[in-house]
Amino acid sequence: MGSIDYQERIPNNVDLQSDKRLQRALEAWQPDFIQWWMDMGPDGFQQDEVYLRTAVSVDKDGWAQFGHVKMPDYRWGIFLTPFEGERKVNFGDHMGDEAWQAVPGEHRNTLRRIIVTQGDTEPASVEQQRQLGHTCPSLYDLRNLFQVNVEEGRHLWAMVYLLHRYFGRDGREEAEALLERRSGDVDSPRILGAFNEPCDDWLSFFCFTTFTDRDGKYQLRALSESGFDPLARTCNFMLTEEAHHMFVGQTGIARILQKAAERMKEGDPRDFGAIPVDMVQRAINFWYTVSLDLFGGEDSSNAANFFGAGLKGRDRETELTEHTGLGQIYTLEKYDAEGNKQVAELPLRRAMNEVLRDAYVADCEKVIKSWNRTLEKAGCDIELTLPDRKFHRAQGVYAGLPFDPQGRFVGHATYEAKKDEWLINAEDKAYLASIMNKPHYAPGQYADWISPPPRGINGQDIDYEYVRFATPRI
Ligand SMILES: [Fe+2]
Ligand SMILES: [Fe+2]
Fold first, then answer.
1. What homologous superfamily is domain 16-468 in, according to CATH?
2. CA of residue 153 to ligand 2 center, whole Å
3. What are the pLDDT digits (tens) for 62-118?
4. Which residues are within 8 A (CB) of 249 and not within 5 positions of it... i.e. 6 or more apart?
């Protein structure tokens, strides 16, 4: 078990062949997916050959193969970590029952909603990033962008498989709708806020892959605990791919900081076309906080239901000692419109979104530490910080309240006056557009605002020809 059948039109390890109806339904969806990819995927690079990683197995070691492929020929497929047989529901009211191999009728609508919400983020991010190739800082980065994009496409496949396989006609309709909504569209936007924000410069892209893909990591971890076994196994395999997306973001920002620190020794980084550290901080503040919103309300009956029903667990649920979430409280700070603090005690189940957000925040703290080590090693004494979780929120109990990045209630007048110091602003965007005004397509060439990576992909050199253009571009 583990290897994937590549002879099929849709590579898979779910024995698609034995379910002809499902196979036909997915084969009918496939051309619509390709059409969406051509319309909304990376703009202008569909004929070029990209050094991509393709999943060829679901074994822990050696699951991927690298080679040059045209993106429309990428083998998107359906891969789940293998069926373990013995799995149980590990938390909530059904704890100890056999994990479900079919959708429990009572949870059908809830589960479909969870899958659609996750599925919607995957094509959304591809749409957000579709113009970035035209301003890539190097071939290495261009390849990484496309790797992230094709894998988000595969994650869409993963969710669409679940919809088609387990939700009948409703599922098929939802699968079509996933190709119809558009990031940022006024009439038919993507479901979640951060996935409608423009991501049209590389500083945003690296923040997005650090912070927004990391939200994905925690959602997938919580769903990989699910009592609905096919969802758990699907999310497990998606996590393998997700790690690279966060690597791209984290190392991208580290390389920007490296360059900024070097230039600061000579003067203002802007004079050299580099990105100053305070601008990086403003981008972090923006993308981190819009990503915090993705976790949903702090006090949530939906979250309580998801947990109670055994559909969505906590981060590393199986490693915890207590799995009912009952008889415990979560203490939450709340504020009224005047900034008066109240302490609310929530039943733990209702606070499950916040519990997951806690795990995410702790992970993000580690990322900031690693960036600060990069700055320190490069001889720069500026420290980046993670803003307080009450700052710049649009969802939940802090939504719209005027907190500063340190978490102090400052009032609306101060907030409005200071906003541009805290969040990436119009002037920053104009500057970024001015330095990211042309692509770097020659192997080994890097933009002035980023350091080369310490090493290449899959053991290749950093000046390897990661993208072979169909028609010469340099
Ligand atoms: Fe994804
Ligand atoms: Fe991702």
1. Ribonucleotide Reductase, subunit A (1.10.620.20)
2. 10
3. 788 999 999 999 999 898 888 777 899 999 999 999 999 999 999 999 999 999 999
4. 205, 206, 207, 208, 209, 210, 211, 213, 214
